[in-house]
Amino acid sequence: MRFIFKTDYAQDIHLAKHGGHIFWYSLLMALLVAAPWLFAEYWLAQLTFILIYSIAALGIMLLAGFTGLFSLGHAAFLGVGAYTQAVLTNAGIPFPLALACAAGFSAAVGWIVGLPALRLKGIYLGMATLSFGFIVEEVLARWESVTGGNAGINIKAPDLFGWVLASEEQFYFLCLALTVLSTFGILNLLRSPTGRAFVAIRDSEISAQSMGIHLAHYKTLSFALSAALAGVAGALYAHKLHFISPDQFNILQSIDLLLMIVIGGLGSVHGAFLGAIFLITAPQMISLVKDYLPAVVGQAPGLQGVVYGAVLIGFVLFEPMGLYGRWLKIRTYIEMFPFYRKGMFKRQKSFQKSDRLK
Amino acid sequence: MTDILLSAKNLSVRFGGVLAVNQVSFDVKKGEVFTLIGPNGAGKTTVFNLISRIYTPTTGSIDFVGPSGKITLTDQAPQNVAELGIARTFQNIELFEHASVLNNLLIGRHTHRKTGLWQDLFFTAQAREAELRSREKAEEVIDFLNLQHYRDTFVAGLPYGVRKVVEMARALCTEPSLLLLDEPSSGLNVEETDDMAFWIQDIQHELGISVLMVEHDMTLVSKVSDRVLAMNQGEVLAMGTPREVQTDPGVIEAYLGSEDDVSSLRRPRGSTFHTGASA
Amino acid sequence: MQFFQLLISGVAQGCIYGLIALGFVLIYKATETVSFAQGELMMLGAFACLVAMTMFGLPYWVSILGAILVMALLGMLIEFAVIRPILGQPAFSIVMLTIGIGYVARGLITMIPNIGTDTLALPVPYKDELWKAGGLVLNVEHMVVIAATGVLCVLLFALFRYSKLGIAMQAASQNQLAAYYMGIPVKRLNGIAWGLAAAVACIAGMLLAPITFVHANMGFIGLKAFPAAVVGGFGSLPGAIVGGLVIGLVESFSGFYLPDGFKDTAAYIVVLIMLMVKPNGLFGEQLRKKV
Lengths: 358, 279, 291
Fold this sequence. Notes:
Helix content of chain B: 25-40%
Helix content of chain C: over 70%
Order of helices and strands of chain C: HHHHEEHHHHHHH
Number of helices of chain C: 11
Number of strands of chain B: 10
CATH architecture of the largest domain in chain B: 3-Layer(aba) Sandwich
Strand content of chain B: 15-25%
Distance between the termini of chain C: 57 Å
Radius of gyration of chain C: 19 Å
Strand content of chain C: under 5%
Shape of chain C: globular
Number of domains of chain C: 1
Largest sheet of chain C: 2 strands, antiparallel
Number of strands of chain C: 2
Oligomer: heterotrimer
Largest interface: A-C, 55 and 60 residues
Distance between the termini of chain B: 59 Å
Number of helices of chain B: 11
Strand order of the largest sheet of chain C: 1-2
């Protein structure tokens, strides 16, 4: 068992709580930096996708996991970012500027979507965001002069003021850098008043307000930040695929984003990454297992849907804290062996209607 | 009248057909402990909600002396109330369940934040400084209320008595000039209520904070209050020192009923009391 | 003339949305959970009827009743196996669970060899028939939808107003604890609510099948039913039908009078306007936390 003896407030503020943290995360970073030399091209591409989806997952985790605002149309922000990046890059604008614009424009759209959030709660907010998602998808398809409509558009390689990132390895490092920046950004927010305000809004709006937290400001801010991250992810997504079309940002993509954070573990930064890893590796694992199943099951087109659905149901039923929650339980078990008790992570249930009003 | 902190004038609030508060007026002086008492449904928490601006009065207004002078509280938005120096606790505890006690208190420091979004995002030296100061202040409150034991525990697992204290701690973290306590001793045992009495006195004398509270426990009320306001069915019954209000005939009638109410239950001396049998 | 055609097809489409929305609202009122699986239950109902008629060769009326029964049982089974254990968890988790149920249902149907990936026709007796009434050419399929919805609404109204079961369900939806104390078997009622919602979805599926044909992605129409439920106000049963009619009519007319692309998004634009103007829908109730 590890006891952390605190002598300084700075220790509480520090992101790494003890030496073990620093060691393991440094090892992870070393592995990620060495990845292009360790992995084959295909796996490097998958890793790049994991990084891109992690950024998007961080965004929606901030909104849904930390602020408690559920967005059922989040793919719209991904699409806005992707298309902004595509249009600007094709017009010759250098990558950093285009990315800033993509993030900024996404944030603006996020801010607008967040305005109804001020008056709406729960399912009504979900419906409003769902509606926005559909409307944005339709706009992307219809505004043919800019977006090329349903035919989609091709995107040129990222151009950093003359240095064109043509190779997959270079693009991977770009994604890695942006992922690291986004993660630190979110971690910094969470240990500062802004992040705490978000968590306060999630847990009890009325008392957040009585503590002086301006609900309207922070809710729209959460939407804007979340959309900005999705915009960055969308921009990188566009560059990675070299081609985007409106149907890549539909309701199924939105559900995928939500799936990520639920399976990863709501309310934790680790959960965003674990969820992204799940989302990208699940199809791989299904393909691997497919050959061992009888043909009628293995070759059927609906298999992926069944697996996703079953995993989602399984997690909600048996592991509501997601993959990260399961990891926490395992780690606590090992740390506290043999004193681990089954009820340590028991969830509070609320059955009264009034309990569930926020 | 420079030492009046809060002044409620002819407050009335109507919810549909129900007149919850009817022409209620009172003043809270600086540095005093002012208690609202009354039977359930008298409108006491409603008055609190009017002060915290959760409700808007149908008629009447509230004046408050904030950091920049006297303002009309009823014109303010709910999120400005904390900044003006009013903090409150809630009758049914409204803590942030999925955060630790320390984080709850740090959220209470929100009105004293010195950093904006961008400083937080990059966690600049300024943000770090502000964090350290916040934590110092929160630790002072933890010391004051003896919450060291629970500092890093998640609120969701805490017993009721501790939660009440955490609520009060969070309110104190906002460094208010007026503290609204909604039934501070409800659900507490005798020992915890005694502690509560000491803390309220400390808050008044050591921290110099004025306290406006709703309370049912008359012993606690007598021990700590400077003045008491008795309410019943949304109206003011009596106002004065605890002794004055407790001996007021109108108040006694509201709590215990008049002679007419109890006469039907009266039995002649010497008869045995039959349960179930008709008189 | 055109106007009237649009009106009828709009009302018919609206009835379908209304029926699915009715299912949402039934489940929401009973268990306060939002079920994203209604669309898929509708699709399963249509497939059930199709299987009964084509594979088992049963006559139309028998197939209909059989499908309704099977779906009602399936709804109750889903509630028992999957929803009951997680009651009390935050609403978002339950929504994700129902999305998962939808995925599984859609996936399983797609996996069935031969019929899973095809678009199939339901051989209803009134297929492709037309009614000619004074210059109007009306699709009998639409008329059947409207008539059936009307009958169903009357039946449900009678159920909730006059029967013990209906009153018990209303009581349980307002205050579960109090209903328990009164001896109402709340958990069983939740199962019945799900069964009823599944049955209603099944009827919607069987009514929709002649118009859109039976295929695995039929359930996506369920997504349009959400705006219907929201417009009507999420806790109100008549509101669900009214909301559905509003959405159906708006879609029908905007498809004709407004430029391309508005037909698909019309429903969502209406929802956004409604949420701005009247956040709780036409008949919804404003619930507020009391502190």
